[in-house]
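Long-time lurker. I teach an intro course on protein structure, and each term I like to show students one example going from raw sequence to a predicted 3D structure in token notation. This year I'd like something fresh instead of my usual example. Would anyone be willing to generate the tokens for the chain below so I can use it in lecture? Attribution to the forum is fine with me.
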Amino acid sequence: MKIILDTNVFVSGIFFGGLPYRILQEWMAGRLGLVLSSEIFAEYERVANILAERFPPIDLTALLDFVSRKAEFQDAPSFRAPVCADPNDDKFLACALAAGVRIIVSGDKHLLQISGFQGVEILKPRQFVEKYL
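-- Reply from a regular --
Happy to contribute to a lecture. Here you go:
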């Protein structure tokens, strides 16, 4: 199964554990596929670097390198008009549609509001774990 992780889930898994960490573990073990666009990866890097400054003992270089090598990258053209209430979230949906991925894991209220758009299910981490893991 291939999924897309919203930045909040990815970063929460790295810094705070819990269910987002479990989802990352499943991916690192090869039981899930992670699909990204270059735009999503850039956001992962940007947010992870901000948090790394706040939590200096954590070195994210190796993890981001691992993600860049092991995730599947998909070109994802932007929508002509915004789909989400927050247009910055459109990149996740655009990537899912371009790659044929049917699940985005997110805690973002704007993405959750459009769950079901063109067949893409948007689930909170707990919902994803309960339904698929």
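Some talking points for your students: The chain has one domain: 2-132. The chain has a mean pLDDT of 92.
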